[in-house]
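Sequence, structure tokens quoted for completeness.
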Amino acid sequence: MSKRQQFSPAAANDPASTATADERKKSRRTQTTALSLDHDILCMIFAFLDMFELVRCTLVCKTWNAVIESLSLREFHRRKLMGSSEFPKKPLRVIFAEMATEQHRLALQDGSFHVDQWKGHSTTAAQCRMKMGTVATGVGDKVIRLWSVNSYRCIEEYSVPAMLPLVDFDFDESKIVGLIGSRLCIWRRNGKRSIFSSPEGAVVKGSCMRYFDPEAMVGYDDGAIRVFDMYSRSCSQIIRMHSAPVTCLCVSEDQLILSGSTSGSITISDPYSVQQVTTLRSSDGRGIRTLCLNPSSQLLFAGSAVGYTYCWDLRTRKQLWGKRVSPNVIYSVQHMRGDRSTLAVGGIDGILRFVNQNDGTIVSSCIMEDKLISSPSGSFQRRKGRRLPDNYLNIDIIPTSARPSITCLAVGMKKVVTTHNSSDIRLWKFT
């Protein structure tokens, strides 16, 4: 007797087995019915869904995706969700992206929020990065750790070679690149983990690092930028960009190198021509501490040693605005990729500020309250967040436990991760 013809009386008399089989049949009938609905009925059903539910529905099958992409439904949702019947025609995915960005802006500016805090390192963590639902932290205790933003569990860990300080790092899907002393190291995330130390014998201290495959750019205290090929492990260029130590840098998508220095100037160079393109001047003679480039708008943002935030348009090389948003040093300015509205700013006073990218005005200032909301399984602590009134000046009366210095921050969709030169990591979640 074949397996198809075999029959088990015990299974036939088992109510659980029968119920499970019936549920499977019912599920298949439901799926078949849903997938066989005609175009107009599907449009009527989809009209009741919000944008995130619609995005999920586009992944079910080609038929559903085609219906959701259809012109009639697209026009309906333009009118329903955007409040206008004169909205220019765009692909639905573009509309969804714009709406998600707008929700992100509103959440950061006006939404309620809480702060999840967990101990991430044995001593200190001074820097953080966030990509694709993963947070990377390090600098302080000789280890780089990668965390899940959902569970706050450490998913990967990489040790720094003994006797060498970790200065800066970044990561992607396949590797972690770190500046260790004056040298570069690469940790492979897939397969065998190994460390490649560049043979460049620079004795000048490295201060910052960014990479754009296959090259990594390192800023040094002698004012120069050294460009390394990460795969041949050689220094391909040395570019003299400043007469003072380099403090920060970023790389554009066309691989222009932008660097700030303790002199307060920002220099833009092209590594392929080895020529200085231009120098952007700020009014801050005490130095630029951090840089952030928005590739979608071609705006460059900088934070200074005396609390100023600046913005330049790279297309015209002109400063658009410069405003003092903090009374003290700004250590980090960042924005979500693709967001042209909101800039997150953090520094020595420990207040997380959100600034309008277009004019530099402060749209919100946030701190974490001491009140504990919950501590699930002891893995992390959840505390309530509080927004400060506009033009709040009595910062000194706020306990330092609610506003430890923000040494670094990274921005994701409705969330910001911060480090504070302590063992704790904070994730700010906005709704």
